Amino acid sequence: MRSSRRQPGAMRHAHVVAALLVGALVVGPAAGAQDQPVGPVTAGVALNIAQPRGVFAETTNIGVGLSGNALFRLDPNAIFNIRTELSFINYGNVNQRLPLSPTLGNLIQVDLRTSNNIASFVVGPQLLGPTGAFMPYASALAGFSAFWTTSTVEGSNNQTEFASTTNSSDFAWAYGGAAGAYVRVTNGVRPVRMDIGMRYLRHDDVTYLTADEVRASTREGRDARPIKSRVDFFTYVLGVQMIVF
To answer: pTM of the entire structure?
Structure first.
């Protein structure tokens, strides 16, 4: 396995985050002169596309999932806020049709479905830039993530699950940041905005399984061998944000 190296793409992402953070600090005081971007509590949901980095990118592919977040306003101009976020990412699935038992030959077939998943909960301060149709934001995040791989067995005809096993599971602290912009869709008492952005999370010393290892263990008739490494990934976000109250 190759050692992880600093990648130019990661540096570009870091520069974008830094630029948005500085911009929010410089122009943020003008926010109160325009429309209110958030209420005391603003919530949103989003589609997530996760791009692995470093060692994690050598063993896994693009992941897909969903997230929900809440923004708690700390000042009247909504410059300083607290962001909380819960996300789910699936980074690999393996579907295989196998005989139920060697003693039955190939007469009874079942579907073995294996899923690799990450669930994260993070929280941190978020700064909002000037209000208007396009409103940038930047935040620092910290929390934790759960990694797990589960296999289920279903009948090939009726698709009724009759067995399930957690093949690997681990827990790790997560830290990173997010940057992006809210783009106004509707205005009014409860304005709706699109949330377009990205999030970066880092995890140290995580044990996890990959889709390739699941296939290899089935093919070779052995137990799956989890990998232990640092896990980094960018998540690209497209969602909607609306004032709750």
So the answer is: 0.80
Q: Are 218 and 165 in contact (CB under 8 A)?
A: no
pLDDT at position 131: 79
- Beta pairing, strands 41-53 & 227-243: antiparallel
Cβ(177)–Cβ(199) under 8 Å? yes
Burial of 148 (0-12, 13-18, 19+ CB in 10 A): middle
Per-residue pLDDT reduced to its tens digit, 149-187:
999 988 766 666 678 899 999 999 999 999 999 999 987
Q: Nearest 5°: phi and psi at 22?
A: -65, -45
What is the CA 9 to chain-centroid distance, rounded?
18
What is the bridge-based pairing of β-strands 192-208 and 109-128?
unpaired
Can you list the domains of the chain with their CATH numbers? 8-93+121-146+173-243 (2.40.160.20)
Identify whether the C-beta of residue 69 lies closer than 8 Å to the C-beta of residue 44.
yes
Q: Are 227 and 208 in contact (CB under 8 A)?
A: yes
Distance CA 72, CA 137 (A): 14
> Confidence class of residue 52 from pLDDT cuts 50, 70 and 90?
very high
- For 199-213, give one letter per residue: b (16+ CB within 10 A) or e: bbbbbeebebbbbeb
